[in-house]
Write a structure and sequence with these properties.
This protein is an alpha/beta fold. Helix 5 crosses helix 6. The longest helix has 20 residues. The radius of gyration is 22 Å and the shape is globular. Strands 1, 2, 3, 4, 5, 6, 7 and 8 form an eight-stranded mixed sheet that branches. 49% of the residues are buried. It has two domains: 159 residues, D-Maltodextrin-Binding Protein, domain 2; 216 residues, D-Maltodextrin-Binding Protein, domain 2 (3-Layer(aba) Sandwich). The protein has 17 helices and eight strands.
Length: 428
């Protein structure tokens, strides 16, 4: 059921359990815990099913869903946690940034088993701490583009080949835009995370030799391209320039309504594209465009975490631990069309088609997975940036001040200076 958050009443006597084989014979005392989730991608109904199943196995545990908008989790949840009024659990994307509030589940789970299964992503939750089990990585994501094949075909334009540059794609999408009369050629979510990979393809390092956030020539070069594409109309004024401050905006609807043939988003959107496009047009995930320094993408994802303010830490850890077991994790990743973070599942692969995806979605997820592997080799700073608890500083400043440059409030040089000031004030 969906309701407003309710704080847990009593703790559950839940002994340390293996992530691989949870025992349900432990005596439980009543606990009511709430779970906050954004339903922008339709996952609330799925986690509700898992919660009901868990409650059937543990009848003294009650899990209440609190379904909210994405902005609530992004902007209001940190304030709630600071005030001590947050939920017991939540799906979060600011993985390292919220670490001060996380429940360390180490006393309640088999930590070595977690390390074996999720060792590559656990550091993202630790925010520089040497250890601790803080969250189940429910979705391994990578940024990348979706393309409307029908629009390309109608315009008589060939898709650029793998390894094509951002300039190649700008030229091709401009030709499609001209050929079919679309509103724009390319759209990118208004997100510093979304822009980071392309900026890295132009040499953006994001960190100096001392590990501090910085702006360099590579970042400036791609920023200039973003500005030029918005000035020319290749990118629409409706997303980056139109929204104020550091607010997020996505280009979903523009892609769904065929206003643009090229949409820079990411793997998490595959199910959403499938559900909203239907048979309106043919689409495909294509390799990310490249620059002189490689073909940059940003990894990331969402995690299910508990918060140390909960009154029922063992109950919270018990549910998250159960979700992270291989059997449940496999079902979750398959049904939500997510790239798995579980090491064994990554090696085995998932049958997305059997879980309800069409062949196009399955192909797309495999393509995204290959991008993630390539990014680790070509732009390792992407993984460093994702794991930084301060990445939100540069992400937010990027959209706020580049957006201001795109709508004429600032010059690009002024925008870059503002971003650098923000980094010095908040990160360094």
């Amino acid at each position: 059921m969906t309701n407003t958050p309710k704080r847990a009443r009593r703790a559950v006597a839940f002994g340390t359990a293996s992530i691989l084989a949870l025992s349900f014979g432990t005596a439980l005392s009543a606990a009511e815990i709430d779970l906050m989730i954004s339903d922008v991608d339709g996952k609330a109904a799925i986690i509700q099913e898992f919660a009901e199943r868990y409650q059937a196995l543990n009848p003294d545990v009650t899990i209440t869903l609190n379904v909210v908008g994405f902005d609530v989790i992004r902007e209001q949840l940190p304030i709630q946690l600071e005030a001590g009024s947050g939920p017991d659990m939540a799906f979060v994307v600011n993985l390292g940034g919220l670490n001060p509030f996380y429940l360390d589940m180490t006393p309640y789970v088999d930590a070595p088993a977690w390390e074996a299964a999720y060792g590559s992503v656990l550091p993202w939750y630790r925010a520089g701490k040497p250890d601790g089990i803080f969250g189940f990585h429910t979705e391994m994501t990578v940024t990348g583009p979706y393309v409307n094949l029908t629009m390309f075909e109608e315009a008589g334009i060939e898709l650029p080949a793998p390894g094509a540059t951002w300039d190649d794609w700008a030229e091709a999408t401009q030709a499609v835009m001209d050929g079919v009369g679309s509103y724009a050629g390319m759209v990118m979510d208004r997100s510093g995370h979304r822009m980071a990979g392309p900026a890295m393809s132009y040499g953006a390092k994001y960190f100096d030799a001392d590990g501090k956030l910085m702006i360099d020539d590579g970042f400036k070069q791609f920023s200039q391209k973003m500005l030029d594409w918005h000035t020319s109309g290749l990118m629409p004024a409706d997303i980056w320039p139109a929204v104020s401050g550091s607010k997020y905006a996505n280009g979903n609807e523009m892609f769904f309504s065929q206003d643009v043939p090229f949409y820079m988003s990411g793997s998490w959107n595959a199910a959403n594209v499938l559900n909203n496009v239907g048979d309106k047009f043919d689409w495909q995930v294509v390799p990310v465009p490249c620059g002189p320094a490689g073909c940059g993408v940003m990894p990331g994802g969402t995690g299910l975490v508990g918060f140390k303010g909960t009154d029922a830490p063992e109950a919270v850890a018990g549910f998250i631990n159960w979700m992270a077991e291989k059997e449940q994790a496999k079902e979750w990743y398959s049904r939500t069309f997510a790239i798995p973070a579980h090491a064994e599942l990554q090696n085995e692969g998932l049958d997305y088609v059997a879980a309800g995806a069409n062949a196009r979605v399955a192909e797309g997820l495999n393509a995204f997975a290959k991008m993630a592997v390539a990014a680790a080799a070509e732009t390792p700073q992407a993984y460093q940036l994702q794991g930084s608890p301060l990445n939100f500083v540069i992400f937010n400043a990027t959209v706020q001040f580049l957006g201001a440059a795109m709508n004429g409030e600032l010059t690009l040089d002024e925008a870059i200076a503002k971003i650098e000031e923000e980094i010095v004030a908040k990160a360094n």
